[in-house]
Specification:
Rossmann fold, single chain, alpha/beta, 11 helices
Length: 279
């Protein structure tokens, strides 16, 4: 029997991409699902895709601490219990350190890092009280490997990894009935890169022909895994109790590469970026 069957599972960022696929996969395996997103239309579509599953859907900005706290209370009241939380909501942004404003960092940090921390803090007491809990925090391949012009994103994803691994150590030391997993997806076909480019244009930032070309190369050549496949890998990892869930061969291979050459891999990454920009 699936370990998620009958469980109450919370998924943030469920309006599209991996979050939507996670909600669908969890419901398919018999879970009761609480979904949230800032995208009302996307959230409504996800709820529709869940069919006859028991669903709680609510608009939520994970960067709003008070809103997340209230949301956790509402979900717990609705279902009577919360077993698993999937802190998945995330955004991307690409700009060099020299070109970036502090607001750029704060916007990405609010969702990618504080959103994970808010979700963990708000739901952890409920997850512990369930007697059979699991906290799943979605990092990225960029929580293992850094890339140029992605300091906003990489900083948050490395931090999510550290936060989650420390939390796991706390749960083990205190012998709480909670498993903790960090997820590192590789190239999954989501709209996060498109959203990042759109946001840059909305902010009035210069988007060059090289930026557009790099974006097309990135989305066509690297973002290849279907979100549904990623969701299956993640939920399989949760059911197996894995502390670290690598999603895709690219994530596994590049993680191994970084471990093999921790002080030298950045030269390789920089060379690849220069070559991609010249195409």
């Amino acid at each position: 029997m699936s370990s998620v069957r009958g469980k109450v599972c919370v998924v943030t960022g469920a309006g599209s991409g991996i979050g939507r696929a996670l909600a669908v996969e969890l419901a398919r395996r018999g879970a009761r699902v609480a979904i949230s997103d800032v995208d009302d239309a996307g959230l409504e579509e996800t709820a529709r895709l869940l069919g006859d599953a028991e669903v709680h859907a609510q608009r939520l900005d994970v960067g709003d601490r008070d809103a997340v706290q209230s949301y956790a209370a509402a979900v717990a009241q609705h279902f009577g219990v919360v077993h698993q939380v999937y802190n998945n909501a995330g955004i991307a942004f690409r700009r060099s350190v020299l070109e970036s404003e502090y607001d750029d960092y704060e916007r990405v940090f609010a969702v990618n890092l504080w959103g994970v921390m808010h979700g963990t803090k708000a739901f952890l007491p409920h997850v512990i009280a369930s007697g059979d809990g699991h906290v799943v925090n979605v990092s990225s391949l960029n929580g293992c490997l850094a890339q140029p012009e992605m300091t906003h994103y990489c900083t948050t994803k490395f931090a999510v990894r550290g936060f989650t691994e420390s939390l796991r150590a706390e749960m083990l030391a205190a012998r709480h009935p909670v498993q903790v997993s960090v997820v590192h997806p590789g190239g999954v076909r989501t709209n996060i890169a498109d959203s990042a480019l759109k946001k840059a244009k909305e902010l009035g930032l210069p988007v060059t022909a090289d930026d557009e070309r790099r974006h097309k190369l990135y989305t066509k050549k690297l973002l290849r895994m279907d979100p549904a496949q990623a969701a299956r890998i993640i939920v399989d990892g949760v059911e197996a109790g894995r502390a670290r869930i690598m999603v895709g061969n690219d994530a596994r291979l590049l993680d191994a590469f970084v471990r093999l050459l921790p002080a030298r891999y950045t030269k390789f990454v920089a060379a690849v970026e220069r070559r991609a920009a010249a195409l």
